[in-house]
Amino acid sequence: MFLQKLMLCLSTVCNVFYVIALNLTVRIMHFISPSLTKKHIIRMNEKTTMTQNPKFKYEDWGPTFNSFNFVKAASWHMWLSLGQEAFLEKEAPDSPVVTMDGKKTSIFQYLRGTLRRSIEFKQLVKDFSDVADFLVVYIAEAHSTDGWAFNNNYDIKHHRSLEDRLSAARILVQKEPLCPVVVDEINDVTAIKYGALPERLYVLQAGKVVYKGGVGPCGYSPLEVRSFLEKMN
């Protein structure tokens, strides 16, 4: 565990410097050539959901990499990730969550074998419901309207109470995720312990972390989870 924590701290420091450098680079590039900046940002995010979601066009999210809110949000997510306790092949933390009707429960209450969005995630639930139990944990909003906001996105502000979070999660439930949806407590305990901000996929088995996906959006890969579950099947 000590080695994993040490590597986490080192990678977090490197990533913070990367985010700051990226923001400064984008600002300079935008001043010199906005069109070149656009190509660079699109290429950088070509594997993320932002470029694949037909709801969004570049103008909705691309220019936000030129903002202080991008640095602030990314740095905050990385700071919280320093508290994570979920490491590959180690015991998974049974962190508390809240059901959609406001009752307190925990991650392990949903375990048979498996943990965390999108059409691809729905397909995973359909295809592997006989192999794994799926659970969506709705955590802090990554792109709140009063934070690192995208245009043409849901009007969700930073959650200041559990009811705020439950109200936001009800929007997700309307999309019929095909599996239980719970919300993180307002102190973000589950997001912290699992290093889940802004999004992350896990597979838990017998109380252990057997798959730990990368941090989203770049590391969020339902296809990788599909491959892993196929091997388990």
Task: Offer a few descriptive terms.
thyroxine 5'-deiodinase activity, 6 strands, four-stranded mixed sheet, alpha+beta, two-stranded antiparallel ribbon, thyroid hormones biosynthesis, 233 residues
Secondary structure layout plus pairing:
Blueprint: H1 2-32, H2 34-44, H3 49-52, H4 58-61, H5 68-81, E1 96-99, E2 104-106, H6 118-128, E3 136-138, H7 162-173, E4 181-184, H8 189-193, E5 202-205, E6 208-212, H9 222-232
Parallel strand pairs: 3-4
Antiparallel strand pairs: 1-2, 1-4, 5-6
Instruction: Give the proportion of residues in helices.
Output: 40-55%
CATH topology: Glutaredoxin
Distance between the termini: 29 Å
* Secondary-structure-derived class: alpha+beta
Low-confidence stretches: 113-118
Note down, in words, how this protein is organized.
- By secondary structure, the protein is an alpha+beta fold.
- It has one domain: Glutaredoxin (3-Layer(aba) Sandwich), CATH 3.40.30.10.
- 44% of the residues lie in helices and 10% in strands.
- It is globular, with a radius of gyration of 18 Å.
- 27% of the residues are buried.
- This is Iodothyronine deiodinase.
- InterPro entries: Iodothyronine_deiodinase.
Question: Concise description?
Answer:
This is Iodothyronine deiodinase. The two termini are 29 Å apart.
